[in-house]
From TrEMBL:
PANTHER family: ABC-TYPE MACROLIDE FAMILY EXPORT SYSTEM PERMEASE COMPONENT 2, MEMBRANE COMPONENT OF TRANSPORTER-RELATED. The lineage of its organism: Bacteria, Pseudomonadati, Bacteroidota, Bacteroidia, Bacteroidales. Keywords: Cell membrane, Membrane, Transmembrane, Transmembrane helix. It holds the Pfam family MacB_PCD. This is FtsX-like permease family protein.
Length: 793
């Protein structure tokens, strides 16, 4: 016995035994009886609405999550981030969040009336933390003593203004402190950074939620890296510091941006001002993430997807409901004969919609519960964060919109059915409702299919495109050995490993990109910023890079440039023996390297200088023999015994490349899931429409067959009826997909080659599925004996 049957009998008993004819209870009773009579169609409604709600609510919740970034910081409206703008060769570069180290402190010093606090921090502390032998891979940064005061992060214990001014001090988030020390007091405990630096825990701070751009689990004092001469904290280059300022309440924030250029000129050396122009500005932290062009573009696309899925699901519900008019009209007439008015019929249908949506929400809950890991990976955020109390309005508003669209529109149609329908067979011949609903569904599915195809193709294109080097079986790890003798010893250790095919090193690896340097002309005027990397002679061969002409550098006064560098310098084909002026260094070009990808395909190809080094270390590159996974485990295990005083952990370069495109993969999965959902919903709506059309026109079809029409003619009649709607709708959907794909493809510097033929095939595939569905549902009546249809009238 179903739940609905039990509820219906319970309500009936209340009405019968108590004699209390409450209108609402009676309406619910009749609604449940109606739902029990139409189990199959209601199951379809629940499934389609459940799938549609799941995807649309997830998308809308993700958009709301994006909009809520950085509201977790205290008085976030007064928290501003510093951005730098460099000018080279008369051309102003794009603003960047990487700044010269002293800029934040200078703002605090020069604007005491407006600015309350300022901080600078860096992200170079990437190695793991250790508590004893237990390793913790967490986000860390090195910051000055005003970090917590500036950011507005609650400090639970300690005095950061005093503590972070000292060397080898660390503050832990409450979450990390509990992981490390359980219920023990962490204050005064000593942990290790990369097994090389001992850090004393001097304080803890409140956990920072996921929707924050600054979210460290540990904050190391800035003197810890200054004392070891890490980084460049000066006005002369070293633009790798993130900086924030906090305005005083009610301060005029425009004053800083108006006078910051004059302030910077006071501090910058005069000779640097002649070479590179530099200024800065501050921007509210709430606008930094939201106004990012990539974030904004993805937010718009997710909003379009969410609206499309929600309306297709709700209009599919409307279509199935409207298609049932022909066989529910008599029941409505009976209710009206018993005194029910239009509002009563409407309210009954609204109750029916509410019950269907309730079961759809239950289905959505089961889906999210059973596939939580998948959805969290797709949304790139935990479901608990997506549906936090301050964003619970998102699913509630989505449900309200669905209820209004799915309940009111067909409810009004049912309410208008005249009472005379109880005395005759209802023949609902108008298609004014059905065809527009079908049109929207066909267009929406064609749109999402076109989007899914291009997104997936672009993802696999950038993942498999030639990089200009061979990352297969290459693993990398950061390690510094100091003296040349120690580096040579380490090199021999790797070469003697039986599972190592080849080994080399460089200052960086190309997956995440290289550091930059200013290229000048003969007069010292800056031309552009180039990437640079120091490598030994065997590095290009080991990595599968192509030296087009010349040789590798053999000293500090020689360099190899890539093709893009030569192009930017306008050297033509005569490249060798040219002179490069590199931030005070003069080098002769002795070779030309074929372009290889630096960073990801989201950025254009960059110019590159390859310098010479004999020292082994910094970023170790090892190409392993097969079996790769097994040998990688062996290598990392042997590192613990070969270099017990260091943390050397190798990672697969191919895996790092995949992680570079994780956001693309996530979006690809989301569009594929959305396409499957919408396709399934559309098919259910089309099946309902075709079934109703076959039922409504059964007598017409029988008469046509009696008059000599063949089954193929009947099928052609029904297919044409749907194709009149489908062809235009699919074309519009495909054109919309082409437009949105153009927005999305702007994220990349390299695009998968696509022609109009791809979109044409998508349109044909959609139409083929639609025709196949109509043929499947029409086949029986087109081939059955017409006498059966006429006898049933």
């Amino acid at each position: 016995m179903s739940i609905l049957t039990i509820v219906a009998r319970y309500l009936h008993c209340i009405i019968k035994k108590t004699g209390i004819y409450y209108i609402i209870m009676r309406q619910i009773y009749y609604v449940i009886r109606t739902l029990l009579r139409g189990r199959s169609s209601n199951v379809v409604k629940v499934i389609s609405l459940g799938l549609g709600l799941t995807m649309s609510i997830l998308l809308f919740a993700r958009v709301a999550f994006e909009q809520s970034f950085d509201k977790c910081f205290k008085d976030y409206e007064n928290l501003y981030q510093v951005f730098s703008i460099f000018t080279m060769n008369g051309e102003q570069l794009e603003p960047q969040d990487q700044n010269c180290g002293p800029v934040a402190g200078a703002i605090l010093e020069n604007f005491p009336k407006e600015v309350e606090a300022a901080t600078s921090y860096c992200l170079w502390v990437n190695d793991p933390l250790y508590h004893g032998s237990v390793r913790f891979e967490v986000r860390k940064l090195a910051a000055d003593s005003l970090f917590f005061q500036t950011m507005g992060i609650e400090v639970l214990s300690g005095t950061p203004v005093k503590d972070l001014a000292q060397k080898d001090v660390v503050y832990l988030s409450d979450r990390l402190a509990r992981k490390m020390f359980d219920t023990e007091n962490p204050i005064g405990k000593v942990i290790s950074y990369s097994k090389e630096i001992e850090l004393t825990v001097k304080g803890t701070y409140a956990d920072i939620p996921e929707n924050a751009t600054v979210r460290p689990e540990a904050v190391i004092s800035l003197p810890s890296i200054w004392s070891r001469k890490w980084g460049n904290y000066s006005w002369r280059g070293g633009d790798s510091w993130l900086a924030f300022i906090r305005f005083r309440p009610g301060a005029d924030k425009s004053v800083v941006n108006a006078r910051i250029d004059a302030m910077i000129q006071k501090y910058r050396p005069a000779e640097d001002q002649k070479v590179v122009g530099y200024t800065a500005f501050v921007k509210p932290i709430r606008d930094v993430y939201r106004d990012n062009k990539d974030v904004r573009r993805m937010r718009n696309i997710m909003t379009i997807l969410g609206i499309t899925i929600l309306f297709i699901a709700s209009l599919n519900y409307v279509l199935i409901s409207v298609s049932s008019l022909s066989y529910r009209a008599k029941a409505v007439g009976v209710h009206k004969c018993n005194g029910a008015g239009n509002m009563t019929i409407l309210s009954m249908f609204l109750w029916e919609t509410a019950i269907i949506i309730l079961f759809a929400l239950i289905l959505m809950g089961l889906i999210l519960l059973n596939f939580q890991d998948f959805f969290e990976d797709t949304a790139a955020v935990k479901l608990s964060a997506l549906f936090s109390l301050d964003r619970i309005w998102v699913p509630l508003l989505t449900v309200v919109v669905l209820f209004v669209v799915g309940g009111v529109l067909p409810g009004r149609l049912f309410a208008r059915i005249p009472v005379t329908q109880v005395f005759r067979r209802y023949t609902e011949g108008k298609k004014g409702w059905k065809r527009p609903l079908l049109f929207i569904q066909f267009a929406g599915v064609a749109f999402i299919c076109g989007l899914m195809y291009v997104v997936m193709m672009q993802y696999y294109y950038i993942l498999n495109k030639d990089l200009g080097y061979n990352p297969k079986r290459v693993v990398v790890a950061n390690a510094s050995f100091g003296e040349e003798e120690k580096g040579n010893y380490a090199l021999n250790v790797f070469r003697n490993m039986p599972y190592v095919e080849s080994v080399s090193s460089a200052t960086y690896h190309p997956v995440y990109g290289y550091s930059g340097t200013i290229i000048n002309d003969e007069s010292g005027q800056s031309l552009f910023s180039s990437r640079y990397c120091s490598v030994p002679d065997d590095y290009p061969k080991m990595m599968g890079m192509v030296l087009k002409e010349g040789r590798m550098p053999r000293g500090d006064d020689e360099t190899v440039v890539n093709e893009t560098f030569a192009e930017w310098m306008h050297w033509g084909n005569n490249i060798l023996n040219r002179t490069v002026y590199n931030s005070g260094y003069v080098c002769k070009v002795v070779g030309v390297m074929k372009d290889y990808r630096i960073g990801s395909f989201t950025s254009p190809q960059q110019p590159l200088l390859l310098m010479h080094t004999k020292r082994f270390g910094d970023c170790i590159h090892v190409r392993l023999k097969e079996p790769f996974a097994e040998n990688l485990l062996k290598l990392n295990k042997e590192m613990e015994s070969a270099f017990p005083d260091k943390t050397i952990e190798f990672r697969s370069m191919q895996q790092m490349i995949k992680e570079n495109y994780n956001s693309v993969r996530v979006f690809s999965n989301a569009t594929m899931l959305a396409a499957i959902t919408m396709f399934f919903v559309m098919l259910m709506g089309l099946i309902g429409y075709t079934t109703d059309e076959v039922r409504r026109r059964s007598k017409e079809i029988a008469i046509r067959k009696v008059n000599g029409s063949e089954a193929t003619g009947i099928l052609e009649l029904l297919v044409k009826d749907v194709l009149y709607v489908a062809v235009v709708a699919v074309l519009i959907g495909v054109v919309a997909a082409w437009y949105v794909n153009g927005m999305w493809m702007d994220l990349f510097a390299e695009h998968v080659p696509l022609s109009w033929a791809a979109y044409l095939l998508i349109a044909i595939a959609n139409l083929a599925v639609i025709v196949a569905c109509v043929l499947w549902k029409s086949w029986k009546i087109a081939n059955e004996n017409p006498v059966n249809s006429i006898k049933s009238e």
